Amino acid sequence: MLAIRPASWHEPETMPDRPTLSVVMPAYNERATIHSALRRVLDAPVDSIEIVVVDDGSTDGTRELLTRGVALDPRVRVILHDKNRGKGAALRTGFHEARGRFVVVQDADLEYDPSDFAQLLEPLIEGRADVVYGSRFAGGGAHRVLYYWHSVANQWLTTVSNMVTDLNLTDMETCYKAFRRELLDEIHLEEDRFGIEPEITAKVAQLGVRVYEVPISYHGRTYAEGKKIGLKDAFRAIYCIVRYGVPARAARRPVPWRPDDASAASAEDSRADVS
Protein backbone atom coordinates (compact mmCIF):
# COMPACT_ATOMS: atom_id res chain seq x y z
CA MET A 1 0.00 0.00 0.00
CA LEU A 2 1.18 3.52 -0.74
CA ALA A 3 2.53 5.48 2.19
CA ILE A 4 2.20 9.23 1.96
CA ARG A 5 5.39 10.70 3.36
CA PRO A 6 6.50 14.22 4.24
CA ALA A 7 8.97 16.07 2.04
CA SER A 8 11.74 15.31 4.53
CA TRP A 9 11.48 11.55 3.91
CA HIS A 10 14.26 10.00 1.82
CA GLU A 11 14.57 6.66 0.04
CA PRO A 12 17.31 4.38 1.42
CA GLU A 13 20.66 4.52 -0.34
CA THR A 14 20.39 0.94 -1.63
CA MET A 15 18.02 0.67 -4.60
CA PRO A 16 17.78 -3.00 -5.58
CA ASP A 17 14.82 -2.39 -7.91
CA ARG A 18 15.91 0.84 -9.54
CA PRO A 19 13.40 1.84 -12.23
CA THR A 20 14.39 2.96 -15.69
CA LEU A 21 12.36 6.16 -15.44
CA SER A 22 11.28 8.41 -12.60
CA VAL A 23 8.44 10.76 -13.51
CA VAL A 24 8.34 13.77 -11.21
CA MET A 25 4.81 15.18 -11.12
CA PRO A 26 4.25 18.46 -9.28
CA ALA A 27 0.57 18.96 -8.50
CA TYR A 28 -1.33 21.93 -7.13
CA ASN A 29 -5.12 21.93 -7.17
CA GLU A 30 -5.41 19.37 -9.99
CA ARG A 31 -8.41 17.43 -8.71
CA ALA A 32 -9.99 17.20 -12.16
CA THR A 33 -6.99 15.56 -13.83
CA ILE A 34 -4.73 13.94 -11.22
CA HIS A 35 -6.08 10.38 -11.55
CA SER A 36 -6.17 10.58 -15.35
CA ALA A 37 -2.60 11.90 -15.37
CA LEU A 38 -1.39 9.03 -13.19
CA ARG A 39 -3.12 6.44 -15.39
CA ARG A 40 -1.68 7.95 -18.57
CA VAL A 41 1.85 7.94 -17.15
CA LEU A 42 1.57 4.36 -15.88
CA ASP A 43 0.37 3.31 -19.36
CA ALA A 44 3.35 5.02 -21.04
CA PRO A 45 5.62 2.81 -23.21
CA VAL A 46 8.35 2.39 -20.58
CA ASP A 47 9.22 -1.01 -19.11
CA SER A 48 10.10 0.15 -15.59
CA ILE A 49 8.63 3.35 -14.19
CA GLU A 50 7.92 5.16 -10.94
CA ILE A 51 5.92 8.33 -10.38
CA VAL A 52 6.94 10.76 -7.66
CA VAL A 53 3.93 13.01 -7.06
CA VAL A 54 4.66 16.15 -5.06
CA ASP A 55 1.41 17.70 -3.88
CA ASP A 56 2.27 21.36 -3.35
CA GLY A 57 -0.31 22.30 -0.73
CA SER A 58 -3.47 21.58 -2.72
CA THR A 59 -6.76 22.72 -1.18
CA ASP A 60 -9.26 21.44 -3.77
CA GLY A 61 -9.38 17.75 -2.85
CA THR A 62 -6.32 16.64 -4.83
CA ARG A 63 -4.70 15.31 -1.65
CA GLU A 64 -7.70 13.17 -0.84
CA LEU A 65 -7.62 11.66 -4.33
CA LEU A 66 -3.97 10.78 -3.78
CA THR A 67 -5.03 8.36 -1.02
CA ARG A 68 -7.18 6.13 -3.23
CA GLY A 69 -7.69 4.66 -6.66
CA VAL A 70 -4.77 4.64 -9.09
CA ALA A 71 -2.66 6.57 -6.56
CA LEU A 72 -2.39 3.32 -4.56
CA ASP A 73 -0.45 1.65 -7.37
CA PRO A 74 2.93 0.55 -5.89
CA ARG A 75 4.73 2.45 -8.65
CA VAL A 76 3.34 5.73 -7.28
CA ARG A 77 4.91 7.59 -4.37
CA VAL A 78 3.28 10.69 -2.91
CA ILE A 79 5.07 13.48 -1.08
CA LEU A 80 3.18 16.32 0.59
CA HIS A 81 4.27 19.91 0.99
CA ASP A 82 2.71 21.49 4.06
CA LYS A 83 1.88 24.65 2.07
CA ASN A 84 2.00 25.90 -1.50
CA ARG A 85 5.64 26.64 -2.28
CA GLY A 86 5.59 26.71 -6.09
CA LYS A 87 6.48 24.46 -9.01
CA GLY A 88 10.22 24.97 -8.57
CA ALA A 89 10.11 23.88 -4.94
CA ALA A 90 8.01 20.84 -5.87
CA LEU A 91 10.52 19.86 -8.56
CA ARG A 92 13.44 20.14 -6.14
CA THR A 93 11.66 17.76 -3.78
CA GLY A 94 10.77 15.36 -6.58
CA PHE A 95 14.27 15.36 -8.10
CA HIS A 96 15.76 14.55 -4.71
CA GLU A 97 13.43 11.58 -4.28
CA ALA A 98 13.74 10.21 -7.84
CA ARG A 99 15.46 6.80 -8.05
CA GLY A 100 15.38 6.04 -11.78
CA ARG A 101 18.22 6.01 -14.30
CA PHE A 102 16.43 8.86 -16.07
CA VAL A 103 14.09 11.57 -14.78
CA VAL A 104 11.36 13.43 -16.66
CA VAL A 105 9.00 16.18 -15.52
CA GLN A 106 5.27 15.65 -16.09
CA ASP A 107 2.69 18.26 -15.12
CA ALA A 108 -0.51 16.87 -13.61
CA ASP A 109 -2.77 18.85 -15.94
CA LEU A 110 -2.32 16.61 -19.03
CA GLU A 111 -1.17 19.43 -21.32
CA TYR A 112 1.71 17.07 -22.19
CA ASP A 113 1.20 13.52 -23.45
CA PRO A 114 3.12 10.67 -21.72
CA SER A 115 3.06 8.71 -24.97
CA ASP A 116 5.91 11.03 -25.99
CA PHE A 117 8.19 9.53 -23.31
CA ALA A 118 9.68 7.05 -25.79
CA GLN A 119 11.07 9.75 -28.06
CA LEU A 120 12.24 11.81 -25.08
CA LEU A 121 14.20 8.86 -23.73
CA GLU A 122 15.66 7.59 -26.98
CA PRO A 123 18.68 9.97 -27.13
CA LEU A 124 19.40 9.27 -23.44
CA ILE A 125 19.17 5.49 -23.73
CA GLU A 126 21.34 5.50 -26.85
CA GLY A 127 24.00 7.51 -25.01
CA ARG A 128 23.81 10.53 -27.33
CA ALA A 129 22.35 13.01 -24.83
CA ASP A 130 22.49 13.98 -21.16
CA VAL A 131 19.38 16.20 -21.27
CA VAL A 132 16.46 16.11 -23.70
CA TYR A 133 13.91 18.91 -24.14
CA GLY A 134 10.51 18.17 -25.64
CA SER A 135 9.71 21.07 -27.95
CA ARG A 136 6.19 22.29 -28.66
CA PHE A 137 7.51 24.39 -31.54
CA ALA A 138 9.64 21.87 -33.44
CA GLY A 139 6.74 20.30 -35.34
CA GLY A 140 5.51 16.75 -34.92
CA GLY A 141 2.50 15.92 -32.76
CA ALA A 142 -0.95 17.50 -32.56
CA HIS A 143 -1.23 20.93 -30.92
CA ARG A 144 -4.31 22.62 -29.51
CA VAL A 145 -4.66 26.13 -30.95
CA LEU A 146 -4.86 28.68 -28.13
CA TYR A 147 -3.22 31.96 -27.13
CA TYR A 148 -1.17 33.71 -29.83
CA TRP A 149 0.62 36.06 -27.44
CA HIS A 150 1.58 33.16 -25.17
CA SER A 151 3.39 31.51 -28.07
CA VAL A 152 5.10 34.81 -28.95
CA ALA A 153 6.21 35.26 -25.34
CA ASN A 154 7.48 31.67 -25.15
CA GLN A 155 9.53 32.03 -28.30
CA TRP A 156 10.87 35.43 -27.26
CA LEU A 157 11.94 34.11 -23.84
CA THR A 158 13.60 31.15 -25.55
CA THR A 159 15.48 33.52 -27.87
CA VAL A 160 16.73 35.66 -24.98
CA SER A 161 17.74 32.55 -23.04
CA ASN A 162 19.61 31.23 -26.09
CA MET A 163 21.48 34.52 -26.45
CA VAL A 164 22.70 34.20 -22.88
CA THR A 165 23.38 30.43 -22.77
CA ASP A 166 24.55 30.02 -26.39
CA LEU A 167 22.17 27.09 -26.87
CA ASN A 168 19.83 26.91 -29.88
CA LEU A 169 16.66 25.62 -28.24
CA THR A 170 13.23 26.19 -29.72
CA ASP A 171 11.32 25.79 -26.42
CA MET A 172 13.14 26.70 -23.21
CA GLU A 173 9.93 26.91 -21.18
CA THR A 174 8.71 23.39 -21.98
CA CYS A 175 7.64 21.17 -19.11
CA TYR A 176 9.10 18.10 -20.83
CA LYS A 177 12.72 17.99 -19.77
CA ALA A 178 14.39 14.59 -19.34
CA PHE A 179 17.70 14.08 -17.54
CA ARG A 180 20.22 11.47 -16.60
CA ARG A 181 19.61 11.09 -12.86
CA GLU A 182 23.24 11.70 -11.87
CA LEU A 183 23.24 15.02 -13.74
CA LEU A 184 20.62 16.42 -11.37
CA ASP A 185 23.04 15.92 -8.48
CA GLU A 186 25.36 18.42 -10.20
CA ILE A 187 22.74 21.19 -10.36
CA HIS A 188 21.82 23.32 -7.34
CA LEU A 189 18.35 24.73 -7.98
CA GLU A 190 16.96 27.75 -6.14
CA GLU A 191 13.79 29.04 -7.83
CA ASP A 192 10.45 28.25 -6.16
CA ARG A 193 8.05 29.09 -8.99
CA PHE A 194 8.08 28.98 -12.80
CA GLY A 195 11.50 30.66 -12.88
CA ILE A 196 12.83 27.13 -12.45
CA GLU A 197 12.69 26.63 -16.25
CA PRO A 198 15.25 29.29 -17.27
CA GLU A 199 17.31 28.42 -14.17
CA ILE A 200 17.54 24.75 -15.19
CA THR A 201 18.47 25.75 -18.73
CA ALA A 202 21.22 28.13 -17.60
CA LYS A 203 22.75 25.57 -15.25
CA VAL A 204 22.54 22.77 -17.81
CA ALA A 205 24.38 25.03 -20.27
CA GLN A 206 27.01 25.82 -17.63
CA LEU A 207 27.89 22.12 -17.37
CA GLY A 208 28.43 21.83 -21.11
CA VAL A 209 26.27 18.72 -21.34
CA ARG A 210 24.87 17.19 -24.51
CA VAL A 211 21.38 18.68 -25.03
CA TYR A 212 18.88 17.34 -27.56
CA GLU A 213 15.38 18.45 -28.55
CA VAL A 214 12.57 16.25 -29.85
CA PRO A 215 9.14 17.32 -31.13
CA ILE A 216 6.16 16.64 -28.88
CA SER A 217 2.41 17.13 -28.96
CA TYR A 218 0.77 19.76 -26.77
CA HIS A 219 -2.78 20.06 -25.47
CA GLY A 220 -2.83 23.44 -23.72
CA ARG A 221 -5.43 24.56 -21.21
CA THR A 222 -7.34 27.81 -20.96
CA TYR A 223 -7.35 29.81 -17.73
CA ALA A 224 -10.94 28.69 -17.18
CA GLU A 225 -9.64 25.10 -17.31
CA GLY A 226 -7.01 25.78 -14.67
CA LYS A 227 -3.93 27.25 -16.39
CA LYS A 228 -1.83 29.02 -13.75
CA ILE A 229 1.16 30.75 -15.36
CA GLY A 230 0.70 34.49 -15.89
CA LEU A 231 2.34 37.78 -16.88
CA LYS A 232 4.32 38.14 -13.65
CA ASP A 233 5.90 34.75 -14.35
CA ALA A 234 7.10 36.05 -17.73
CA PHE A 235 8.83 38.98 -16.03
CA ARG A 236 10.33 36.59 -13.47
CA ALA A 237 11.62 34.45 -16.33
CA ILE A 238 13.47 37.43 -17.80
CA TYR A 239 15.02 38.13 -14.40
CA CYS A 240 16.04 34.47 -14.03
CA ILE A 241 17.59 34.34 -17.49
CA VAL A 242 19.89 37.19 -16.46
CA ARG A 243 20.40 36.15 -12.84
CA TYR A 244 21.40 32.57 -13.61
CA GLY A 245 22.41 32.75 -17.26
CA VAL A 246 25.09 35.44 -17.10
CA PRO A 247 27.07 33.90 -14.20
CA ALA A 248 26.63 30.43 -15.70
CA ARG A 249 28.03 31.63 -19.04
CA ALA A 250 31.05 33.12 -17.27
CA ALA A 251 31.61 29.95 -15.20
CA ARG A 252 31.05 27.40 -17.98
CA ARG A 253 33.11 24.28 -17.48
CA PRO A 254 36.16 24.08 -19.74
CA VAL A 255 35.70 20.30 -19.84
CA PRO A 256 32.03 19.33 -20.38
CA TRP A 257 30.32 17.12 -17.80
CA ARG A 258 29.86 13.50 -18.85
CA PRO A 259 28.02 10.63 -17.09
CA ASP A 260 31.29 9.00 -16.02
CA ASP A 261 32.20 12.12 -14.03
CA ALA A 262 29.66 11.27 -11.34
CA SER A 263 30.78 7.65 -10.98
CA ALA A 264 34.45 8.69 -10.95
CA ALA A 265 33.78 11.25 -8.22
CA SER A 266 31.86 8.66 -6.22
CA ALA A 267 34.73 6.18 -6.56
CA GLU A 268 37.22 8.83 -5.46
CA ASP A 269 35.08 9.61 -2.41
CA SER A 270 34.90 5.90 -1.59
CA ARG A 271 38.69 5.56 -1.81
CA ALA A 272 39.07 8.59 0.47
CA ASP A 273 36.68 7.06 3.00
CA VAL A 274 38.65 3.81 3.04
CA SER A 275 41.99 5.55 3.50
Strand order of the largest sheet: 1-4-3-2-5-7-6-8
Q: Structural class, from secondary structure content?
A: alpha/beta
Approximately how much helix is present in the residues? 25-40%
Distance between the termini: 43 Å
Radius of gyration: 18 Å
Low-confidence stretches: 1-16, 263-275
Main beta-sheet annotation:
8 strands, mixed
Assign an overall shape: globular
Mean pLDDT: 85
List how many beta strands DSSP finds.
8
Put simply, the count of helices is 9
Care to describe what's here?
With 275 residues, the chain is an alpha/beta fold. It is 37% helix and 15% strand. The protein has nine helices and eight strands. It has helices spanning 34-42, 62-65, 87-97, 117-125, 148-165, 181-184, 196-207, 231-250, 259-274; strands at 4-6, 21-27, 49-55, 76-80, 102-105, 131-135, 177-180, 211-215. Helix 5 (148-165) packs parallel to helix 8 (231-250) and helix 7 (196-207) runs parallel beside helix 8 (231-250). The longest helix is centred in the last third of the chain and has 20 residues, at 231-250. The N and C termini lie far apart (43 Å). Residues 1-16 and 263-275 have low confidence and may be disordered.
